[in-house]
Structure formats: structure tokens, C-alpha cells
Amino acid sequence: MSEQRERYINPLTDFGFKKLFGTEPNKMLLIDFLNQILPDRKIKDLTYSSGEKQGLTELDRKAIFDLYCIGDNGERFIVEMQKAKQNFFKDRSVFYASFPIQEQGKKNKWNYKLDPVYSVGILDFIFDDHKNEKELLHVVELKNQRGEVFYDKLKFVYLELPKFKKKEEELETHFDKWMYIFTHLSQLNDRPKKLQDRIFTKLFEAAEIAKFTPKERDAYEESLKYYRDIKNVVDTSREEGREEGREEGREEKAIEIAKELKNSGVPIEIIMQSTGLSKNEIENI
Prior knowledge:
Elements: H1 14-21, H2 27-37, E1 46-49, H3 58-62, E2 67-71, E3 76-82, H4 89-102, E4 117-123, E5 137-143, E6 149-160, H5 174-184, H6 198-207, H7 214-244, H8 247-263, H9 268-275, H10 279-283
Parallel strand pairs: 3-4, 4-6
Antiparallel strand pairs: 1-2, 2-3, 5-6
């Protein structure tokens, strides 16, 4: 299906994700979604903050968070959409979560009291170490040797979208409906009967491509092309590389992926994350 024939945007594209969840007019969509995956926190309001943070490297400084918000009670929310597997993704999540913690530090006398930090990853892939599990929602906390929560102000939430297989008639909970939106929105021609909640009225209005300005349409089409490049080249090729079962085969496949991504104009930083190759290796391809 071509971009022009789609009625609604793909929320997994950079443009689509930020259009629906990263703008002030659509803030209630993000609030409603977060309240579904964080039931212990009922968020009433959010303030968008800059996604740019001062990191230690050039890669860290470019784009640390897709969305960074502060809740009405001071909670910090990092919300990211990840389209393809990355090396050391969990390490990356922990590293990035340290920035909202450090920024709360105060000079002079300070008692070290911190506001909660939540790192939310919406994943268009399945973790290798969770591929045999049915659960698609993972909530991770710091616990002691008895399985008791040691620190309740740092939480990591991961959603593995490819595991969601329910059809429209099987949708039961509000959470189910949000998962259906993420996985099916761009394929819909009309608003499903199961998605008649008031919050989804706002979502479908915001997602309708026909209402975009020419500039927004161009930005979306460019974002959609980038998403398809990543999806088709990285996900498929890396899976084939793993199936070869040999280190040399994986390395050859990584170089092949890097060539295709480089020819498609994908930034070197993204190619590095997706293939595991170094900057010099990619530049010399």
C-alpha cells in the first residue's frame, strides 16, 4: 500500500510517533497511554522537556530521548520508540535513565531526595532472551535477594509490539486497544467499533493524513521511507545473519546491512547501533 492510499499515519515512524505523542495539543494521548502501562501512577498532566541532554560522546548529545516529560508530581518520563534491535540496548536504557536522575542534583545543601524516573521503551522487535515468553509488557525494578523492591523510584518498562497478535474482535482491555493502535493504525481505513472511546476520537483525528499540511505530509513520507529502510534491511537481514550460525557469516551480514543503510542515507550513528560495526569500519565500506 502506498503512502498516498493510507488514511492514517504509522505511529512507529519518527514523525508519526512525535505527531501523536510529542505535541502539546495531543498531550492527553500520551497521558492516557502511560496510565495504562503504569497503573500505580495516575498522571494528570505532563510538561514536555527538551530531549537533548549533554552526554559524554557525540552520539549521546545528538538525540538521547524521543520524548522527555515531567509529570505533575515531578516524575520524569523517558519515552522512546525503537524500530530495530541494537547492541546493548538494556545497557543503553540504564545509561540514559541516569540523566534525569543527575539533573535533579542541587548545589550546596541537598538531602538527595529524588523524584521517580520511568524509562519506557516501545519496541518493534523482541528481545532474544524473552522470545520464548508470552508476556509483551516487561516492568523492571531494583530488587533485593528476596525479590522485594529495594528502590521504587526507578522503573524500566518495555513493550514488545511483535508479540501482540489479537484481532479487533479479541480486544478486551484499554491496554489491548493501545497495542492494537500501535500495530494496526496505518492499515485501517475506518475507525473500528472497538475503538470508540473518547480518547481514540482525538487520536484518529490527529492521525488522519488528509488533514496534514503539505509540509507535514512531506515530513511524514520521508519518515515513512526511513522506517521502511530500517525495517526491511536491518530486521530481516540481521535475522538471516543469526541463522547462519557462524561468526564470519554474521560479520559479513553486518557489512552488507551497513552498505545498504549507508546507501539509503541512514546516519552513521544509527548504523553503528544496528550492526555493531565501528565508525571507521562503516566509513571505509
